[in-house]
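From: lab user (bench 3)
To: helpdesk
Subject: output format question, protein + histidyl-adenosine monophosphate

Hello, I'm new to running complex predictions and I'm not sure whether the block I got back is the full result or only part of it. Here's what I submitted:
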Amino acid sequence: MTEKRQFRAIKGTRDILPPDSALWNWFEQTARGVFESYGFRDIRLPIFEETALFARSIGADTDVVAKEMYTFEDREQFRVAHPLTMVDVIQIDEAVAEAWQHGRIPRTLANETEVLRLHEASQNIDREGTPALLRFLDSVRNLALGDSLTLRPEATASVARAYIEHGMHMLPGNVKLYYSGPMFRRERPQKGRYRQFYQVGAEVLGQSDAPAIDAEILEMLLVFFKRVGLTQTTLYVNSIGCKECRLKYVELLREELRKVKDSLKEDSQRRIDTNPLRVLDSKLPEEQLIIEKLPRISDYLCAACREHFAKLKDELKLRSVAYEENWRLVRGLDYYTRTTFEVTAAGLGSQNAVCGGGRYDGLVELLGGPPTKGIGFAIGTDRAILSIQEGGKLPHLPGLAVFVAWLGAKAYPTAVTIARKLRECGLAVELPSEEMKFKKSLGLADKLGARYALIIGEDEVASGTYTLKRLADAEQKKLSENALLEYLESERRGTHA
Ligand code: HAM
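Helpdesk reply: Thanks, we reran it on our side. This is the complete output you should expect:
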């Protein structure tokens, strides 16, 4: 007997069902439209990548990499049998050496150590006996034969990887890409925070770091938010400097934090050593007064970074982009340089950041590519949609247009034919697969939210006409096929306009 049990979506994941899914499609489609009007083009990226790509880009000490990634070992391309005889040991030693050489054993530092250790042990078994055999077996066990892969926690690292892999630095002008899709982080689920969540994001990569690029993507972001009715938003901007000036500031910050260490809580105390900038992110009420008195990065930017930030603010003014400066906006990912920003929206409680982004001028180089400037953002689709829903200003999205209410064997062929013609005109049409009394048909049409019922009975078939009933006000018209198609076509254009 198979066990009878109900399956449920994994904690932190969820199904997006109709009618919400229509809102999601509209949101993502609107993003595409706005981003494309600014010259961005779609990039479709893999959902999983090598773990090392994220560790290197986002930073090993960040929460995302240290605690939140969904990482798994892929199936091995190479298997090691359990040795039974000395001949087996020699064969395994040779096979491992060959597999290592040809890249069939993932080339990690840990594997390299084990491959060397395994070879050393196999050479010494004759002389040493059991201790060497145990070392050999230990190394065989320790080899991680499958690649370490991770479900993407974000997409900027993948965009940078793709930029390098496809030699996109050879393309003319700035490379402007956008993406949309699921990301995965093992965070504690709550309102607006999921383990599988969705982002739409955009990135600009190229040779220029002109502040106008930063300002243009912020303008684009706000144009998009306005288009989808997210108006109660606040844009916060900051500059966290370049490698040189930030390093100096971080040292100073660390010194100052050490002086107040005892008044800080455990997390912040730890961060003094690992990542002092993250202390500025603390939301703990008891730490706020202390943080307010810390030195601010804006006073320590080098001349070039100060000028970049000043020009960005001029550009934002030129474009009438409203913003607030927030010196504590340091972001949780390590790749940022200079400009950082976040957008918060109403109706979301503590998880109110609907968008985060910034400049990452060294990232492509860090991943082995040519010197490249970069800037981008990602909008959290789940949160943005929640905020739109809470705001109550939902768009009017066309649903089912026509329910074909047919009755009688003679009416059926006419119903099938006209349903197809209406669908070809781009209308959403429901054709019941079984005969129903008109009363039941009309009731179902109403429940399904159809705008019209198209009535086809014996009378209509005999007279070659159709009865179209508008369900909102029960107004009824008798129309020829041409007149019907024309009427509904113009109605469709009206709805879509
Ligand atoms: P992020 O700030 O980590 O940045 O994420 C961007 C947005 O994704 C957040 O503001 C939030 O709306 C949403 N988000 C993040 N985690 C969750 C979650 N667990 N549940 C629901 N929504 C979430 C990045 O990901 C960068 N890659 C942005 C970027 C692009 N920077 C430069 N280019």
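A quick orientation on your result: The chain has a mean pLDDT of 94. Let us know if anything else is unclear.
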